[in-house]
Amino acid sequence: MAMIRVENLHKHFGGFHAVDGATLEVEKGSITGLIGPNGAGKTTLFNVIAGVLPPTSGQVLMEGEDITGLHPHALFSKGLLRTFQVAHEFHTMTVRENLMMVPPGQSGEDLWSAWFHPTRVREEEHRIRARANEVMEFLTIDHIADEKAGQISGGQKKLLELGRTMMTDAKIVFLDEVGAGVNRTLLNTIADAILRLNKEQGYTFVVIEHDMDFIGRICDPVICMAEGKVLAQGTLDEIKANEQVIEAYLGTGLKNKVLKEEGHV
Ligand SMILES: Nc1ncnc2c1ncn2[C@@H]1O[C@H](COP(=O)(O)OP(=O)(O)OP(=O)(O)O)[C@@H](O)[C@H]1O
After folding, report:
1. ipTM
2. Rounded Cα distance, 162 and 140, in Å
């Protein structure tokens, strides 16, 4: 059974159909790439799946269970996460603190526990700190543990976003443009981290990215969207050779030129 099944999903903004009848499946254990030209509806699709936006119509199933329109918190407890940029209010906290505040239900947050079960609170904080250290080591950001999140580079922020998902019991993680504005070296670190999380810890990923080298390196399968619909699914090579995909990216005139150059016609 598919980890995620999206069935005939629509999201309209007024009369504009940002997602226009998208149907797709994400297999458990896969790193699925989601590509498509600007405005294809990829981020909107993510937001609907992750409960950030209500759908106009259609269904989202997680391992067969209808999760359509559930609040992000409810999805979080089911292990479905969508990463977001580190919010402004967390910029003055250190990288370690940003990681340590993620796990839900910390008893330290609860005044009752802090007064009456101080040992339990200390033990839990110790456990969370140890996990944060492990995560930073895994992502090779342990050297910036005590830096303020607002002062680290764009690529390091992306690693921190990924790190925040590792503080939870995530099963499936939706990553939106992890590579945007990130230098090549850090992009490789991010790719390695995603591959290892997938192989060693069984995370399923869905990744939106415009960098095709990055997609080609880590994603199989790749799904291409355009104008709110799914155009094609396959390996990146299959997708690149798909006429509808080329047309969506380039328009009809350029499509014929590219197909000719690549020897498809
Ligand atoms: N809140 C909104 N209100 C109105 N239109 C919106 C809203 N959010 C997105 N759109 C429109 O929906 C379309 C799809 O946007 P979306 O961001 O989902 O595309 P995308 O495939 O992620 O594009 P990109 O690759 O450029 O990020 C765009 O034309 C966008 O302007």
Report:
1. 0.96
2. 12
